[in-house]
Each structure stands twice: as structure tokens, then as C-alpha cells.
């Protein structure tokens, strides 16, 4: 989740809190892989940890729309079969990433939205919650400030209860994984933008924009100004550069981000190929990110 993170404004206790959850997420996902599990299950396990934390703009920590609702989006994709599933605009699903997986595996569609997605998730035994589950006071405060400033804010701000143009950061969560069989998977989950209009959908649940995986190229999860990632087909763009042009994963990510920057967007990409080569690139001042290898040590970075 990238953004204009200022070193002098990032309090040590906040850094520690984010780091702890990211480490838990990485270890949870890696445990699935270490036990012989598939990349899809590892991605889900890692993202659920972050969806259950109020620190991130996904699941429990989702931001509020203009109408004071928490409208969540998520997507997941299997690099082996190119199967994908997504949900958008859901308000009662504790873990949208699990619902996205159910869409991928339990019906013939790729994306379900709103009430249709919620009804389907309930039929599949997904965890349904009262919308009040997502209420967090600092998120509500952000909305009030955004409304007063007539501003749509990119996810959540470092100071929790402020929304300042120069302190935006993106709290969308994502994960990519490679399993023992050499299969890739990618997943992304978000609450979108503070003060977004009712029904707005960003890049996260759009396959090829915010989420993509193909064993012939890479797995990609994106975060940032969603409209710009949609317009550049960011995730598929990155994968295509690797597959067809033979670009290294970092170069492909940088090229995509440069295209996004040209049209006024910002954000970040995490990219992984079947050789285990990865890149976590962003065109802002920082991005909370992490990786875990066979040494079982979670490596976390911010700047």
C-alpha cells in the first residue's frame, strides 16, 4: 500500500503495529505453502489476516463512502487455469477475498456485485456480518473531514483521523504467491476511496487492472488511484510485458507505473514470476510491503 509516507510523521507505534500484522500475514500464507498447499490458498490466508485488521483499508478497516457505507471489493486469480473471481460493492461480507474465491470456484461467472454477491456468498456459507462490524471511528472521522473539504481521499491517512492532500496513502491489501508445483496466484482486497460515490468500483476487482495471474508470465496485485489503473489495464499490462517482451519483472512494473504517472495516477505493484523473481515497485514516497522466502523470515519494508 503505497503513499506519501513521511518518515518524520510515521510514529514508531504505528510502524510496529503495521509490521506485526504484515509479519502475521506473511507467516500465515507461507505456512500454507510450506505444508504443501496451493498458491491460491496461501493468497487467501495472507489477505484474510489483513482484512481482519482495522489497520488496513480492507475488510474491518474499510473506509466510508459518501453515503456513510463501507463498500468492499476483492478479486483473486489462479495462474494455472486463468480462473478468476471477484466481488464488488459488498457491505456485509467479513472477508470479501473468500467470497471472491467462492465466485471463482462455485459458479460460472467472474464477478458478482452488491446484493447479488452477498446473496451468493450467504448461499456458500460465507461469514455474513452486520454492516456495523466495519465501523471504525477514525474512518468515520476521515469521511467527515473529506466531506467538509469536498475531497475524495485515497484510502487512509497516516494520522488516522485526518485527510490531507499531501498525506494520502493507499491501504488496499494484496498478495501474490508461488507454490511447490510452480503455480502462481494473486489476490487483492480494498474498501476503495474515502468519500467515494455510491456504487463506485475501482481497479481491485477488475481482472487485468488491479489483479492478474498467469503462469506464463507473472502474478500481479496493485494498489493506487484505481481509475488510472483501470485505464492502463495495469496488471495485465505488466504481465504482457514480461510474457511478450521478455522484460524483467521490476522493469515491467516500473514501465506500467510510468504510464500511470503520465495520466496523473500513482500507486504500486507487487509482481512475482514462476522462478521466484519478484518486484515491489511504487511511484510514491513509500509502501508497506513484505516478502517471505524459504528461510521463513518475514522481510518488511516501508520506504
Structure, described:
The protein has helices at 12-34, 39-51, 96-106, 114-123, 137-148, 226-231, 234-245, 249-262, and strands spanning 2-3, 72-78, 84-90, 111-113, 173-178, 184-190, 211-213, 219-224, 267-272, 278-282, 286-287, 289-292, 298-301. Helix 2 packs antiparallel against helix 3 (96-106) and helix 7 crosses helix 8. It has one domain (2-215). Strands 4-3-2-6-5 form a 5-stranded mixed beta sheet. It is built from 8 helices and 13 strands. Helix content is 33%, strand content 20%. Residues 156-169 have low confidence and may be disordered. It is an alpha+beta fold. The radius of gyration is 17 Å and the shape is globular.
Strand content: 15-25%
Shape designation: globular
Low-confidence stretches: 156-169
Total strand segments: 13
Task: Describe the secondary-structure layout.
Elements: E1 2-3, H1 12-34, H2 39-51, E2 72-78, E3 84-90, H3 96-106, E4 111-113, H4 114-123, H5 137-148, E5 173-178, E6 184-190, E7 211-213, E8 219-224, H6 226-231, H7 234-245, H8 249-262, E9 267-272, E10 278-282, E11 286-287, E12 289-292, E13 298-301
Parallel strand pairs: 3-4
Antiparallel strand pairs: 1-11, 2-3, 2-6, 5-6, 7-8, 8-9, 9-10, 12-13
Helix pairs in contact: 1-2, 2-3, 7-8
Brief summary:
This protein has 303 residues and is α+β, with helices and mostly antiparallel strands.
Amino acid at each position: 500500500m503505497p503513499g506519501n509516507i513521511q518518515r518524520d510523521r510515521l510514529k514508531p507505534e504505528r510502524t510496529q503495529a503495521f509490521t506485526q500484522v504484515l509479519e502475521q500475514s506473511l507467516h500465515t500464507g507461507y505456512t500454507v505453502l510450506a505444508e504443501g498447499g496451493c498458491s491460491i490458498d496461501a493468497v487467501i490466508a495472507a489477505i484474510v489476516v489483513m482484512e481482519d485488521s482495522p489497520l488496513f483499508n480492507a475488510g474491518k478497516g474499510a473506509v466510508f463512502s459518501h453515503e456513510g457505507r463501507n463498500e468492499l471489493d476483492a478479486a483473486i486469480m489462479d495462474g494455472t487455469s486463468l480462473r478468476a473471481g471477484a466481488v464488488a460493492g459488498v457491505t456485509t461480507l467479513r472477508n470479501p477475498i473468500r467470497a471472491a474465491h467462492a465466485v471463482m470456484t462455485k459458479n460460472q461467472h467472474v464477478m458478482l456485485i452488491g446484493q447479488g454477491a452477498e446473496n451468493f456468498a450467504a448461499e456458500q456459507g460465507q461469514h455474513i456480518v452486520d454492516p456495523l462490524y466495519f465501523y471504525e471511528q477514525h474512518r468515520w472521522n476521515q469521511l467527515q473531514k473529506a466531506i467538509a473539504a469536498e475531497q475524495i481521499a485515497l484510502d487512509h491517512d497516516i494520522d488516522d483521523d485526518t485527510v490531507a492532500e499531501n498525506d494520502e496513502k493507499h491501504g488496499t491489501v494484496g498478495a501474490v504467491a508461488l507454490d511447490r508445483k510452480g503455480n502462481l496466484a494473486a489476490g487483492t482486497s480494498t474498501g476503495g476511496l474515502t468519500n467515494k460515490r455510491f456504487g463506485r468500483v475501482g481497479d481491485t476487482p477488475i481482472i487485468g487492472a488491479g489483479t492478474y495471474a498467469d503462469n506464463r508470465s507473472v502474478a500481479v496485485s496493485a494498489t493506487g488511484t484505481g481509475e488510472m489503473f483501470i485505464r492502463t489495464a495495469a496488471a495485465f499490462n505488466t504481465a504482457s510485458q514480461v510474457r511478450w517482451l521478455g522484460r524483467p519483472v521490476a522493469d515491467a512494473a516500473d514501465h506500467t507505473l510510468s504510464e500511470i504517472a503520465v495520466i496523473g495516477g500513482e500507486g504500486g505493484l507487487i509482481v512475482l514470476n514462476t522462478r521466484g523473481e519478484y518486484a515491489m515497485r511504487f511511484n510514491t514516497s513509500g509502501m508497506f510491503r513484505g516478502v517471505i522466502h524459504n528461510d521463513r523470515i518475514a522481510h518488511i519494508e516501508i520506504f
